[in-house]
Amino acid sequence: LPASVKSEDVGTSTESVVVVGHCCESGDLMTPKPGEPESLDERVLRTADIGDIAVMDGSGAYCAGMSTKNYNSFPEAPEVLVDLEGGVHLIRKRQDLKQIYENECDVPSGVF
Fold it and tell me: DSSP labels for the chain?
């Protein structure tokens, strides 16, 4: 979805891409090769620009209930629910940086 969040702004140009998540782990593949879940494959998708939104259906470990919270200091993503009529509802806000670090403590001097 384009940053404007207007479907009429999607455009028609496409490109071949490999889609991976931010964790850089072996299972962090959104475009696996058919029949080979550990191998990457290209998909033809609409051309994206910085600020566009990618909607992942069935996000597995990327949903809040399965995520490794704050792995690599990455904030929890916002989550939306699409109802039966197509309405979109925010059900979890994006976590801000302060929330990630608020439980960290200073290391006493002399520990290292």
Answer: --TT--GGGS-S-EEEE--B-SS--TT-BSSEETTEEEEE--EEEE---TT-----SS-GGGSTTTS-TTGGGPPPPPEEEE-TTS-EEEEEPPPPHHHHHTT--PPPTT--
Question: What predicted TM-score, i.e. pTM, was given to this entire model?
Answer: 0.54
Q: What is the pLDDT of residues 53-99, one digit of tens each?
A: 777 766 655 666 666 677 777 788 788 888 888 888 999 898 888 99
Residue 39 sits at the vertex; the CA angle it makes with 33 and 42, to the nearest 5 degrees, is 50
Q: How high is the pLDDT of residue 8?
A: 72
Q: Write down the residue that tokens 């207007």 correspond to.
A: 6
**Beta bridge pairs of residue 43:** 17
